[in-house]
Specification:
Number of domains: 2
CATH architecture of the largest domain: Sandwich
Shape: globular
Number of helices: 11
Number of strands: 10
Radius of gyration: 20 Å
Low-confidence stretches: 1-26
Structural class: alpha+beta
Strand content: 15-25%
CATH topology of the largest domain: Jelly Rolls
Strand order of the largest sheet: 1-2-9-4-7-10
Mean pLDDT: 83
CATH superfamily of the largest domain: Regulatory protein AraC
Length: 297
């Protein structure tokens, strides 16, 4: 069975937080999941840096102090003060490093409107926020936090409008950034990259066939490879291999304690020896060695 999703709002452990979770009155599913935290100070000692987790809801992280290194669906991000990261639902997250002075704001929320997923997109978006947008983003968080602390179900629609407005604003800021980099005229390659990464990360056990993705994108393998190499610096096969390794680590640390042979089958790697060789080539240790090391932690 696939590994169950883990909600990002449960990690990392926090030593201090302000803000509140919306009340569950009114039987509103949105209230049961939305969360706004105006100040997060992660407890670095309790963060499992070697483990991945799959986010259930959309998440916005806005850094106010310090730095954070993380991977979202195998894309690496270095967040600094005033960096903002928009993480779509169903993304796979791993924390790599967090500075002792790290402080950030967080908002997480489910899909609640038609077309919202298209607006948010299917890959993470990082923007370094500068004035005059900095004050605007801070005001969005302030309004969400103020409304959620009231704990009245009638505020749900107001919070939803604020979230949608904030995402529209972020998309507009990103367009300005792309224009300054001369990338605004690349909608098709950006769309291809986004849809490929979405399909690749959609399942806990990725499909390892390049043609599986190109058939659905209606492009040639060469075209997809050229796009991924140009926009990410990695080939299609490198992305598939990295995703497979991440899935292998998840399965090797799964409480169900799958055998290596079962994991090899789940990941479409053929025989157990083939999978073990593949894993060691990309990680420097055998599946058994990795599993023993993780059990000692």
């Amino acid at each position: 069975m696939d590994k169950p999703a883990i909600n990002l709002k449960e990690e990392p452990k926090l030593s201090k937080k302000t803000g509140s979770v919306l009340d569950r009155k009114g039987n509103n599913p949105f209230f049961e999941k939305v969360k706004v935290i105006s100040e997060c100070i992660p407890d670095v000692k309790k963060i499992a840096f070697d483990r991945t987790q799959r986010s259930i809801d959309h998440t916005i992280i806005f850094m106010t102090e310090g730095t954070m290194d993380m991977e979202v669906s195998l894309i690496r991000f270095h967040l600094v003060k005033h960096s903002l990261l928009l993480i779509p639902a169903n993304s796979v997250i791993a924390f790599n490093a967090v500075s002792p002075d790290c402080v950030y704001r967080l908002a997480s929320f489910p899909t609640f409107a038609s077309g919202q997923n298209d607006l948010i997109g299917y890959e993470p978006l990082m923007i370094d926020i500068e004035e005059p947008h900095l004050t605007t983003i801070e005001n969005y968080f302030y309004m969400m936090d103020m409304l959620t602390q009231n704990k009245h179900s009638e505020y749900a629609q107001s919070v939803q409008h604020i979230i949608i407005s904030m995402i529209y604003h972020l998309r507009k800021v990103n367009e300005i950034v792309l224009q300054t980099k001369g990338l605004i005229d690349l909608p098709n390659p950006q769309k291809i990259k986004s849809e490929f990464l979405y399909m690749l990360n959609q399942n806990s056990c990725p499909i390892r066939s390049v043609t599986y993705y190109t058939d659905r994108l209606n492009i040639t393998p060469t075209h997809l490879n050229n796009v991924m190499k140009k926009l990410t610096g990695m080939t299609t096969s490198e992305w598939i291999n990295r995703t497979t390794i991440r899935a292998a680590r998840e399965l090797l640390t799964d409480p169900k304690n799958y055998t290596v042979a079962v994991i090899a089958e789940k990941l479409h790697c053929g025989s157990e020896p083939n999978f073990s060789k593949f894993f060691k080539t990309h990680t420097g240790e055998s599946p058994s060695e990795f599993r023993r090391r993780m059990k000692l932690q």
